[in-house]
């Protein structure tokens, strides 16, 4: 479902004499449907950079990144937008939302974008918010004023609203209490069971061991960082 072939990335620092930093050198791996692969490696190894390249936020200088039949490296912006709507989900660490939109609509929005009727989308959003222990009295409010942990759970509910065939998870259990951490791990297990291909960054080692089938040590592909 997700396949990287000979992928490399450099950053050019235009404000520092155009210094070129090699971050990822020649990484290849694939993730099958129903599989969860963890990106590991020391701080600065390039885990988040690689995840942003797979999502198409960062340019990739060399190689192929295939999600289904789309090569993100060469895809047109409109094809990337379509891929993100239908196929590729991304749960970042932080919620970014349009102010004043109620929480229930924030969570239902990815389904509405796919043409799911409002009632069905809201039913799914309600079920997820309930499962993630967001009190119903908050659903009609914008999440912008919510606590950090509440915002993270709204973000996770939104990220899991649509059953994406491929998902990228950046520290989905960071700063959650034990009960909510458990809910998130079970959501990941459910997604795997329905056949999602997942790539995740988990500093929580127990969580990683539980839900991930394999680990890719990104440090092996970081010039100057190899052990
Ligand atoms: N936009 C950018 N411009 C220039 N350099 C960058 C940029 N983003 C990341 N880097 C550099 O790329 C390297 C990898 O960073 P990245 O954030 O991917 O590491 P990480 O493995 O996710 O680390 P952590 O576990 O600390 O989050 C770092 O040396 C960082 O300084």
Name the descriptors.
227 residues; alpha/beta; 5-stranded parallel sheet; 4-stranded antiparallel sheet; 9 strands; binds adenosine-5'-triphosphate; ATP hydrolysis activity; Phosphonate C-P lyase system protein PhnL; lyase; P-loop_NTPase; CP_lyase_PhnL
Number of alpha- plus pi-helical segments? 7
From the helix content, strand content and strand pairing, which structural class follows? alpha/beta
Largest sheet: 5 strands, parallel
Mean pLDDT: 93
Strand content: 15-25%
Please give the number of β-strands: 9
Order of helices and strands: EEEHEEHEHHHEHEHE
Identify the overall geometry: globular
- The low-confidence runs, each spanning 5 or more residues with pLDDT under 50, are none
Helix percent band: 25-40%
Q: Walk across the major sheet and give the strand order.
A: 6-7-8-3-9
First-to-last CA distance: 30 Å
Bound molecules: adenosine-5'-triphosphate
Pfam family, one: ABC_tran
Family: Belongs to the ABC transporter superfamily.
InterPro entries: AAA+_ATPase (IPR003593), ABC_transporter-like_ATP-bd (IPR003439), ABC_transporter-like_CS (IPR017871), CP_lyase_PhnL (IPR012701), P-loop_NTPase (IPR027417)
Organism: Sulfitobacter geojensis
Could you please describe the fold and organization of this structure?
- 35% of the residues lie in helices and 25% in strands.
- The protein has 227 residues and is of the alpha/beta class.
- A five-stranded parallel sheet has the order 6-7-8-3-9, with helices on both faces.
- Strand 7, helix 6 and strand 8 form a beta-alpha-beta unit.
- Helix 3 packs across helix 4.
- The mean pLDDT is 93.
- Adenosine-5'-triphosphate (ATP) binds next to strand 2 and helix 1.
